[in-house]
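INTERNAL AUDIT FORM
Audit reference: QA-55
Scope: verify that the stored structure record matches its stored sequence.
Auditor: D.O.
Record contents follow.
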Amino acid sequence: FPFRANSAFILQDFLWYPEVNGSMRQRIKSWTEVCSEYISLFLQWSIKIHNGSNEALAQYKINITSIAPLLEKLAKSSDVYWVLQDPVYEDMLSESRKMITNEKIDAYNEAAVRILNSSSRNSKAKVKVFSVSKLIAQETMMKSADGLHLPESSRDTNAMILMNVYCNKIMKPIDGSCCQPQPPLTLIQKIAFCFFTLSIIGYLIISLIHRNHYRKNKSCTDLESGEEKKPAISMPNVSTLEMLLHSFCKLGLIMTYFYLCDRANLFMKENKFYTHSSFFIPIVYILVLGVFYTENTKETKVLNREQTDEWKGWMQLVILIYHISGASTFLPVYMHIRVLVAAYLFQTGYGHFSYFWIKGDFGVYRVCQVLFRLNFLVVVLCIVMDRPYQFYYFVPLVTVWFMIIYATLAIWPQIVQKKANGNCLWHFGLLLKLICLLTCIYFLSYSQGTFEKIFSFWPLSKCFELNGNVYEWWFRWKLDRYVVFHGMLFAFIYLALQKCQVISEGKGDPLFSNRVSNVLLFISIVSFLTYSVWASSCKNKTECNELHPSVSVVQILAFILIRNIPGYVRSVYSSFFAWFGKISLELFICQYHIWLAADTKGILVLIPGYPLFNVLVSTFIFVCVAHEISQITNDLAQIVVPKDNSTLLKRLLCIAGFFSGLHIFSAMQDQSRH
């Protein structure tokens, strides 16, 4: 029975050969002269014709042995699959089929597998055994109409898996699908592997030297006097080199775990299936936990450090639950999560503006420290996981916005709080700068061509291209284009009100007078709920995304006022959420590969068959790894980014050379692929 689908370039033949004999051997021999993709052989007929005799099984083994070399020859140029015979449901078999028993079928299957595997050991080409059909049949054969043939749903599942086996290695879908071959290591990945290996060896050698040196000089008892001798040398301090190697040693082990989870096909992945309970029940659980860990803040200012860490923490936990539950398919949840992402960017504008405005520190050291802390993990993952920089879209987003904030405030004239206090006109000068920034944002948001031209120039194109263009970067930037500006403007107004002593930030005191505080609190609650009602009534994601940049600030400001106007609320925070807030960036990035896996499209399965236990174990490892990476980043930032300007300049030149080398190796890799 031939099947042709010219539009999909599919040619399929179903050939009926009831026995493994000379006729079948001749057909397989003819296939070795042309291209054939699959061979499927079914064996019930042999058992039925020969009434399940042992002589037929012995002859079957001889015949399989004779065709095995031909199948191996065919496997050199094609994919050859030997499909195991499905079990039968013996109670439903008709009288004419009673000789077909599962015991006989197992004997035939075992003979075929043993002969084909034995033959494949001596050959590079291998005939693949397609055993999943047998496993499916064991679960579904009771639903068979005659006890012999599989139900239609089981046949569909078999066909789907066979298509996955063939198509996924060609199309390489980035989701939780099966059957993708392990990607070959790139040159850059091999160099990274060697670097981490040398770091581990170097650290072990230095540790052993220091330990032996310490043991030789540690205190001992004088046998003659009975007094303890003091050591000539105390335990040596950890050197910069040892700290550096220690950090890279830990990072190398962590990156090995990343690679094994999401590139080595060692662990299974599963798809996400959204239900309301899978999203909302964990949300309620973590909120209850957060309330139980309430403590007093060290200071009671608006958006103090503990409060912003708390804010980042609970938002990050909600976003993680959103990702693992696949809640992006539910539009009201999606719109609220968009506000949480916007709130992160709002804090970026608020925090960096406040620092530059108050400190007036526009030095290179500050810029390098921020850029290193933001980008270190992502750069390492780009190398180890062979992913483009833009793939981890949030880090490029906050990096670019940090540079925009820096450029806005650093260019002439530099206007800071100290200068503005002497002359109020400087406040208008800063407002003029902010208006210019808003104008540029507005222009770029409605000029996609200009935006793409700016970021298509080398070397920016290397950072912001994804799949050969910068559209994804354009979409991400445009989605929250105004919220950083809103954060900067809020910081400016708040600091101005604070300087004029319009607001009261004492412990337990409301932010304004009682009447004003009550009015603002009422307006904030109404605004917060109004936005939630609007977001919940969204019907079209595209239309809601168009409105989101302009209206997301409403719920953000409402939350800030609700959280800070009452003095007793402003004076406490959740240490549970604040702890997660301190590692929120690492949590957001690490989830791509060691929690969700399949580049966020699937869920990592460390323990198959126990979904709840699997989530608990993978989550514990994931959080520990994120915390450790945060510590490593902080340690390396102190070493790699020194305060001395001349030393820092040399380091920057080395980093420029490093990225130039990466670019050259990447170009070489691209050429070899083409």
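Auditor finding: record pair retrieved intact. The first strand starts at residue 2 and ends at 5.
Action required: none
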